[in-house]
């Protein structure tokens, strides 16, 4: 190993090997007849803070799990991760109740999983024993194994339940515990934990107990999580991905590009003529994946643009590539914007809209919805409908059904947080015909696939779960989730959806009102 950082990387490797040995990860043995040893390699990574500064050099020994055989070396592999909606709800509830929110990390988390299969691995490069023919008989899990995530999650779940935490049935990565002080909430994303509790004393007790089973590093008040910068003041939380956006701009050579006031040309989806195909779509797919991570975490204002361009990942055109770069130019202009979460009362509002048959290639409509909890955004979606709607009213029925499916899940999730939402839940809709047919219970003849969606929503109306209210089109926030907009309308809806420049005070007017 050479270079100015060689000693830092070597120290990181030594630290990893120390952890592996202390953990009893393997025992050296002879390879049994008829078995093959899995390979391994070193992976190096610089861990950055929310501003992009190097805080740690990390070396990880990774098993080459792609050589494992199903049924012999592994069986179960699935491991859940926390949903973004759950994380935003946790921050919103913590803000409403004045809870402390802390961040912690489990060191070498996957090494704690207990394997159920016999797996043999070649010795780590650079740390071979005198007996070069010996192999490592794995006693504990290791990064790279097919089942590593599964066995780690199983182990962590067992420990939390012994600590009196209850696992949510609505998000398996949310754990809730009640004691004399109130509620404690914990979410887990692989080896990253976010804990919301009543005071520092309770948090320290949780970390102390976890340290009896794992090596847990307390990172203090939450300031970043999964590449998202998190700010908090007396008015609530805000989420930003400015550093991540800068990295994308640099990666694709767009940091000197001319900024754009909107993310997608409104006429792009209307193009009928054949376009020049992009010769290599790998870079396009990589860019769309990076943009999707921004869209689902902090920037609903680019959600529909990424959704539209994502439909061409398998066969993108030059026009698609140009529009993908336009999103980057828009993000360059607005990279200082952040998603401001709510802190208001326990009210839940939904904005639903559909763009009827605007895709000239398939004539399928686009659904968009936005959920505001306590005045701030917690969930949004922009999706192409799977059926062809024969009218704008039918398209609205489909969009309503999709939003109500999400609504039922969110209502159950909020119950896990002991939030009793005010019922009926208000749904804003800008199609008068849709509202009248829903409320009257007498809809016109429709094809069967739309009819089932109509009855699903109508049943929720009858049960008093939801109520519908007309929203003028020029105030329909979800409009920006159904089609590309010009800069003036987009700016208005963007702020109504809780996306503001960071210089604006956190929490101010984050009500979804225009």
Task: Report what the structure shows.
The chain is an alpha+beta fold and 514 residues long. It has 3 domains: 6-226, no CATH class; 242-334, no CATH class; 337-501, Ribonuclease H-like superfamily/Ribonuclease H (Nucleotidyltransferase, domain 5, 2-Layer Sandwich). It has helices at residues 6-22, 84-97, 148-162, 200-210, 242-251, 282-297, 303-310, 318-334, 392-416, 432-440, 448-462, 487-496; strands spanning 26-29, 40-48, 54-63, 100-106, 120-121, 135-138, 166-167, 174-179, 182-189, 192-197, 216-221, 224-225, 228-233, 236-240, 337-340, 348-355, 366-373, 376-384, 425-429, 466-470, 499-501. Strands 7-8-9-10-4-11 form a 6-stranded antiparallel sheet, sandwiched between helices. It has a 5-stranded antiparallel sheet with strand order 12-13-14-15-21. Strand 17 (366-373) and strand 18 form a beta hairpin. Helix 5 (242-251) packs antiparallel against helix 8 (318-334), helix 6 runs antiparallel to helix 7 (303-310) and helix 6 runs parallel beside helix 8 (318-334). It starts with 5 loop residues before the first helix and ends in a 13-residue tail after the last strand. Residues 504-511 have low confidence and may be disordered.
């Amino acid at each position: 190993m050479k270079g100015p950082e060689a000693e830092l990387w070597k120290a990181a490797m030594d630290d990893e090997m120390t952890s592996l040995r202390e953990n009893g990860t393997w025992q050296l043995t002879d390879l049994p007849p008829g078995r093959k040893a899995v390979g391994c390699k070193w992976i190096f990574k610089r861990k950055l803070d929310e501003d992009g500064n190097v805080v740690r050099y990390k070396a990880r020994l990774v098993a080459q799990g792609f050589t494992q055989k199903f049924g012999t070396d592994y069986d179960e592999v699935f491991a859940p991760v926390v949903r973004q909606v759950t994380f935003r709800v946790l921050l919103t509830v913590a803000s409403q109740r004045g809870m402390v929110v802390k961040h912690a990390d489990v060191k070498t988390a996957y090494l704690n999983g207990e394997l159920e299969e016999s797996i043999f691995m070649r010795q780590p490069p650079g740390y071979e024993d005198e007996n070069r023919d010996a192999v490592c008989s794995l006693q504990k899990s290791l990064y790279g194994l097919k089942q590593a995530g599964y066995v780690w999650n199983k182990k962590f779940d067992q420990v939390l339940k012994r600590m009196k935490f209850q696992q949510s049935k609505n998000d398996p990565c949310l754990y809730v515990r009640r004691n004399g002080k109130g509620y404690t909430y914990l979410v887990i994303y692989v080896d990253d934990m976010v804990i919301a509790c009543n005071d520092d004393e309770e948090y320290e007790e949780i970390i102390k107990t976890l340290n009896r089973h794992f090596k847990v590093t307390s990172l203090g008040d939450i300031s970043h999580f999964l590449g998202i910068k998190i700010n908090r003041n007396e008015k609530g939380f805000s989420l930003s991905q400015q550093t991540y956006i800068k990295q994308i701009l640099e990666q694709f050579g767009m940091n000197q590009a001319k900024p754009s006031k909107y993310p997608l040309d409104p006429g792009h989806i209307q193009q009928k003529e054949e376009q020049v195909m992009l010769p290599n779509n790998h870079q396009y797919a990589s860019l769309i994946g990076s943009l999707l991570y921004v869209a689902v975490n902090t920037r609903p204002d680019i959600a529909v643009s990424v959704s539209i361009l994502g439909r061409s990942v398998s066969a993108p055109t030059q026009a698609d590539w140009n529009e993908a770069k336009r999103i980057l130019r828009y993000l360059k202009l607005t990279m200082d914007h952040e998603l401001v979460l709510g802190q208001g009362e326990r009210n839940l509002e939904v904005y639903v809209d559909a763009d009827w048959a605007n895709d000239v290639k398939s004539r399928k409509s686009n659904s968009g919805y936005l959920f505001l909890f306590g005045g701030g955004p917690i969930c949004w979606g922009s999706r192409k409908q799977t059926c062809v709607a024969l009218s704008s009213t039918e398209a609205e029925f489909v969009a309503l059904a999709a939003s109500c499916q999400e609504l039922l899940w969110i209502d159950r999730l909020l119950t896990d947080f002991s939030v009793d939402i005010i019922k009926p839940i208000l749904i804003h809709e800008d199609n008068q015909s849709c509202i009248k047919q829903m409320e009257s219970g007498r809809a016109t003849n429709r094809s069967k696939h739309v009819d089932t969606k109509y009855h699903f929503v109508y049943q929720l109306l009858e049960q008093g779960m939801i109520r519908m209210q007309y929203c003028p089109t020029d105030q329909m926030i979800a409009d920006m989730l159904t089609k590309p907009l010009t800069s003036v309308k987009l700016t208005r809806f963007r702020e109504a959806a809780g996306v503001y420049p960071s210089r604006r005070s956190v929490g101010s007017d984050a009500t979804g009102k225009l």
